[in-house]
Amino acid sequence: MRDYTIITDSTSDLSLPALQESAVTVIPMEFHLDGKSYHNYPDEREYDMRQFYAGLKAGKTSTTSQINQQTFEEVFEPVLQQGRDVLYLGFSSGLSGTFHSSCLAAEELLRKYPEAKIICVDTLAASAGEGLLVYTAAKKKAEGMGIEELAKWAEDNRLRLCHWFTVDDLNHLKRGGRVSPAAAVIGTALGIKPVLHVDDEGHLIPMEKVRGRRRSLDALVEHMVKTADPKEGQTVFISHGNAPEDAEYVAKQVKAKMKVRDVVISMIGPVIGSHSGPGTIALFFFGTKR
């Protein structure tokens, strides 16, 4: 049986230690700031994440680009040339056209390498939710799971990957069309914070509105208590838009209320952060359902 490489994209927001442990290949996505284009590398080689969020707070606007077919081919083909297969675990098709590009690349390369396997799985996930699925899949690969079995595991378990998050600045959701301009103005004046999640189709859905930052953070943990897989010992991911103190607060609450093996905290990269903004806090875990 041929060995294989797990590939994902930088929207997975995996921390460097988690990425190094997982031996996963990450394709950087592009973001555009101040008229220049940058790649969202996990090691921040092209742009420092704290500097990025400082820029957004100062009023700068960042836009993003999906990964195109050519880039996927350039990443996949060297793996195939080494005699290895490819398992791509990709950014939700409900949020980007990136996954479709990966499928086109796979079709093209399989004509050239008919003996190879290229399996693309739509995680229907985003940020460290996508990252948690990839991280767990990498552990199963290390335990000896084959490519087809692992692809099926990812498909069978992706809708158990729960995303709960809140934003600190409604104006970024307004720009993305998630809230109306009037709702953003009124909500900001009243200190209203939305609580959102990613649904079974991989779309971003507002779920409730609460007043006050602390209350919104507590709401994330409350949703976890209601829906988390009852088995003990899972690893939980928390990601943040340059708000480490709030991420630590959520981690403390999770550890106090749930029996978890570990809590891994990472920053939200510039691609996801372009749409969620500074101060975003997100909690990811395996549940009985999304």
Spans of at least 5 consecutive residues with low confidence: 182-187
Mean pLDDT across the residues is 92
Tell me the strand percentage band. Answer: 15-25%
Rg over CA atoms: 19 Å
Number of extended strands: 13
Task: Note the gap between the termini.
Answer: 35 Å
Helical content, roughly?
40-55%
Topology order in helix (H) and strand (E) letters:
EHEEEHEHEHEHHEHHEEHEHEHE
The helix/strand class is alpha/beta
Task: Based on Cα principal axes, name the global outline.
Answer: globular
How is the largest sheet built, in terms of strand order?
A: 10-9-8-13-11-12
Write up what this structure looks like.
The structure is a single chain. By secondary structure, this protein is α/β, with parallel strands linked by helices. Helices cover about 40% and strands about 25% of the residues. It has eleven helices and 13 strands. It has a six-stranded mixed β-sheet with strand order 10-9-8-13-11-12, sandwiched between helices. A four-stranded parallel β-sheet has the order 2-1-6-7, sandwiched between helices.
Briefly, what is this?
By secondary structure, the protein is an alpha/beta fold. The protein has helices at 16-22, 49-57, 69-81, 98-112, 127-142, 147-157, 170-175, 181-190, 213-227, 244-257, 270-276; strands at 4-9, 25-27, 30-33, 36-39, 62-65, 85-90, 118-122, 161-166, 192-198, 204-211, 235-240, 262-267, 281-286. It has a 6-stranded mixed β-sheet with strand order 10-9-8-13-11-12, sandwiched between helices.
